[in-house]
Amino acid sequence: MLQDLNREERLQLMRFICSFAWADLEVRPKERAFIKSMIKKLDLKPDEAKEIQKWLEVPPPAELVDPTRIPRAHRELFLKTARQIIASDGEIAPDEQENLALLEALTR
After folding, report:
1. Taking the model in full, what pTM does it have?
2. How confident is the model at residue 105 (pLDDT cuts 50, 70, 90)?
3. CATH 1.10.3680 is the classification of domain 2-106
4. What's the Cα-to-Cα distance from 101 to each of 34, 38, 82, 95, 98, rounded to whole Å?
C-alpha cells in the first residue's frame, strides 16, 4: 500500500511512473493528471513535488529507474501503478507495453 512506502520508496515509485509516462516520448495531459494525483496520494512535500514536475519535462535518469532496486515487498504496488499510468490516457503504446513486460519480468 502507498502508505507503507518510506520517503525514498515514494520518490522511487514516482521516478518509475514518470519514466513510464515518457515511454512513448510524450507525456500527455491525462498522464500529467495521474502523476499530480499520485503526488497528493503520497502526500509529498513541495520540494519533492517540484522535483517530480522536472521529470515531466525531462525523464528521470535511467540509472535511477532500476527495477532490481524495487523492494520485494513493494513490487506488486509498483507494477499496479505502472499499469495505471500507461492506461491513464486511454492508449497503450507498444513502447509502454514493452516497458511494462520488462518491469514484470525483472521484478519476479
Report:
1. 0.89
2. confident
3. yes
4. 21, 22, 11, 10, 5
